Amino acid sequence: xxxxxxxxxxxxxxxxxxxxxxxxxxxxxxxxxxxxxxxxxxxxxxxxxxxxxxxxxxxxxxxxxxxxxxxxxxxxxxxxxxxxxxxxxxxxxxxxxxxxxxxxxxxxxxxxxxxxxxxxxxxxxxxxxxxxxxxxxxxxxxxxxxxxxxxxxxxxxxxxxxxxxxxxxxxxxxxxxxxxxxxxxxxxxxxxxxxxxxxxxxxxxxxxxxxxxxxxxxxxxxxxxxxxxxxxxxxxxxxxxxxxxxxxxxxxxxxxxxxxxxxxxxxxxxxxxxxxxxxxxxxxxxxxxxxxxxxxxxxxxxxxxxxxxxxxxxxxxxxxxxxxxxxxxxxxxxxxxxxxxxxxxxxxxxxxxxxxxxxxxxxxxxxxxxxxxxxxxxxxxxxxxxxxxxxxxxxxxxxxxxxxxxxxxxxxxxxxxxxxxxxxxxxxxx
Length: 430
Hints:
By secondary structure, this protein is an alpha/beta fold. It has helices spanning 7-39, 64-76, 109-116, 174-187, 200-211, 232-236, 239-245, 259-262, 264-273, 289-294, 305-312, 339-347, 359-368, 371-383, 390-429; strands at 52-58, 81-85, 100-104, 120-125, 141-146, 168-171, 193-196, 220-223, 250-253, 280-282, 297-300, 317-320, 348-351. The chain folds into two domains: 47-199 and 388-401, Rossmann fold; 213-383, Rossmann fold (3-Layer(aba) Sandwich), CATH 3.40.50. The chain has a seven-stranded parallel β-sheet with strand order 3-2-1-4-5-6-7. The model is unreliable at 1-12, 25-30 and 36-47 (pLDDT under 50).
């Protein structure tokens, strides 16, 4: 007889197994530490040299454009750091660094099993779900730091509880601090360290745009939706592609990478119905720079790529009315209107069921109305602080935090020795 275990149950069983193994490992390690303590005459053993000072973890090669600027700063400063990736084809693995060690640690649960028993001072990651799914906090990692890969509301970037169990979050705008603090208050969570550092990925995009200006080309529309029930393709399907093909514009379609996993049937159906041609091109590049730079206007929904495009390349956007469902996100805990949805009407025009057939007119208006440029400047000030300094400020924070942590550890190690000296002196005086 064959037994079938569904993926959800299998994942749960694997998590339990990892928990049991981790507990056993920590128990054995704890006994070993105690043994060393007694054999040393009650003196605290020195720190284990195998502990890594800095680790970056990513579960996707897509985040290399976020972490490469940070790794470059560590390399420039001759500061060792370890980059761990769950993508076997991560571009980082091809880099020739001296001080940055790039390592593939396996995919899926194998990667999380490694992280669950990691020994490091500080771990930086853009991956959500720490302590929620398979990825657990290691007892031998002192400090977990999260850096978002998008520049808009932190409460709509990830599904609910995505960053609750990090120790610090590196943010890009003051309003994001207020949102995180409100979530912490409502859930009675301990306050995280929140630091405004800017956005390394956006800084790098800006540099590339200045170094590689786009040559003359036919007017181009980039259709780059997010994924899920609230996104463009779930709402409009192929109708939006039909409407765009009625215009004279060239069309680049770049679905969210997660769509090829979570909405595979939908995307494959659209790619079959609207194949690559002189008018249409589907873009799946790891780096979105070429698609963003070639486009004259972007059509999206609530995807963070809207702000990458409009704030870096200073071009207009059309955002779809997709009746955004806040339920899966931290945003559903907040009563205030989100920055994303108060800002979108100021920097672009809304696409609805009623005006879908007039999408060509919407595009023409967006390309010629000067008010959108003024509002882009305001949005840039609100959500992209310390422009051009994101990677340097990220490295500054991590290194300063490491100094702080190791200083505390050194002081803690010295305490037993000081107590022993005090006891010896008391015996001598007696």
